[in-house]
Write a structure and sequence with these properties.
nine-stranded parallel beta sheet, binds alpha-D-galactopyranuronic acid, 561 residues, six-stranded antiparallel beta sheet, single chain, globular, alpha/beta
Amino acid sequence: MFTLHQKRACRLLDGRWDFTYLGSDLSPEFLEPASLTFDDVMVVPSAWDAHPAYAGKRGTAAYRISFDIPPGRKAFLRLRGTGMWNRVFVDGEELRTFSLPYSQIEITLPARDFSQRELIILNDNRFDPNRVPLQFNFYDFYAYGGIFRSVELHLVPDVHIHSAELDAPEASTGKVQARIVFAGEVPLELPLTIFADDHIVWQENAIIKDGAASIDFQVPEAKPWSAKTPHLHTIRIETAEDDFALRIGFRRIDVSSGQFLVNGQPTKLLGYCRHEAHPQFGPALPLQQHAQDLQILRDLGCNFIRGSHYAQDPEFLHLCDEMGFYVFEESLGWGNVDEKQFANPTFHSGQLEQTRLMIAKSRNHPSVIMWGYLNEGGSDKPYAANLYRELYHLCKSLDPSRPVTYASNRALTDLCFEYCDVISINCYPGWYSGDPDDPRPLPQIHKALDTYLEHLHSVGQDQKPFLLSEIGAGAIYGWRDPLNARWTEEYQADYLELVCERVVQDDRISGVSLWQFCDCRTYTSVGALGRPRAFNNKGTLDEYRRPKMAYKTVKRIFRKK
Ligand code: ADA
């Protein structure tokens, strides 16, 4: 696994933690950790309600672990991703309460004069528009509780490297522009050494202004990064007492005259939307599952993945960097249309905060080629435009190097296209539409795509790439039937054949992320009458990654390209 630090004392707190489920008749905001007794175990990472013992429960759970930190040492935790709502205590002191599902956050640990430290995380998976403003049970994927991703413990010297933002657009020059951010009692100058692939490429006193140093350096023998040639260069930044490493890819993404250009080459994006989900693990996917999924996507001939609908596991993005995939990463959202949500200040601030955290986490991954937010939000509602504008400008200000988009399911009435560089359209012609007496409304697919393309031309938006960010049909794994109608594997295969052939042949369509890679759990509500098994069954594979008939169809067409 790629390690970020050699000099810094840094380790994962993954593995066995104490655990207890506290039920749903208490208010976790007021709970005293000292009162807790832990009667079970839970592994971190985990979604506790993916465990049969806790399946379907909605309430408060508590995780606990102890670890040693030398007295007086500064330290921080990095939680790579958690579910719904968390309240964090260290040594009985409350440090942070947050509801930022799937977001990576850092918590500073106060120095103590003793060594054994105790971390307790209260985790609550109940829906509450005020306590959990970003996640709702009408989203079409099951919301779990838990500590979904690894927890890192970093012991840091007083002055340490907090983060680094590196831009490396051109392999031909090998030039890197770095902005290195420090934390602690930062001096005005600091001796710094920068290694590129173990060669010293910069070694001077860094001038520090407002806690950061801007440094340009050159990587010798720089090679370009692309999905076809995923060359990575390892950059290590060292001070006398600390270090920080990352991998970069020399690549430039441009969007012009309706196309994606990677290093100046027009590139058709072919792939899938993928949830981080599995029946055994919920969203807490082990690295092995990420690797298996990417090997399947590679076998299908894909070069593109839309990480729907939340910030992605950094380990998954490391694999995408190494194996060569383009990623559309978006912050959490699903069908947020209600005016009350847009009027809710905690929804508004939460959307901005989680999008900022996503970019901070993923900014240096060459595989991430565009940022997104508010999947199928109310982009045709005047009251929503303000948040779309703020999110767009937030992304552009944090990272001018990548195009910004949002997946819209209201192409013909959308009011926010000025707040995106790529037009991403979700549509399901021939699935959610069609006459009752027509078992196979496949002709609706081309008609709908023609309508969208003509409309975008008429409103002057066809200079931006048109991405089919969702399109697909459901199929029940193993269901075959002479009607070859909806829910059969045959209909899904015929449907995706029409879509994939159209995408590959039509230069006005810059790419597709089919909905979806594999089936995933959703809710057993009345809405489930359209979700057999309470799963979203539009996967080309089922939830255990067993391929349906459409697998061969998509593979044949994508690989031909
Ligand atoms: C929407 C949504 C997806 C999924 C899809 C479907 O486009 O963004 O998450 O719910 O519809 O299966 O209908």
